């Protein structure tokens, strides 16, 4: 949830904010025990998700 709120605070659209929330949650699951996510992990995961979706976010069709 905090990742989504941070996305909104950065003035990202809903879809990108939710993707950042997913990235932050995934990054938290990568840490041992009950540790919080590491910023660099969350940003790396988010960057990978966004780069794969960028044409769709801009409203264009992704072509091979």
**How big is the Rg?**
13 Å
With helices defined by DSSP (H or I, 4 residues minimum), what is the helix count? 3
Bin the strand percentage: under 5%
Determine the fraction of residues in helical runs and give it as a percent range. 55-70%
Number of strands: 0
Shape: globular
Order of helices and strands: HHH
Largest sheet properties? none
State the end-to-end distance.
34 Å
- Class from secondary-structure proportions: mainly alpha
Query: Average pLDDT, to the nearest integer?
Result: 84
**Could you list the spans in which at least 5 consecutive residues all have pLDDT below 50?**
none
How does this model look, in words?
There is one protein chain. The chain is mostly helical. Helix content is 67%, strand content 0%. It contains 3 helices and no strands. The longest helix is centred in the last third of the chain and has 19 residues, at 39-57. It is globular, with a radius of gyration of 13 Å. The model has no long low-confidence stretch (mean pLDDT 84).
How would you summarize what this structure contains?
The protein has 64 residues and is an all-alpha fold.
Indicate the topology.
Blueprint: H1 2-9, H2 14-29, H3 39-57
Helix pairs in contact: 1-2, 2-3
List keywords for this structure.
single chain; 64 residues; mainly alpha; 0% strand
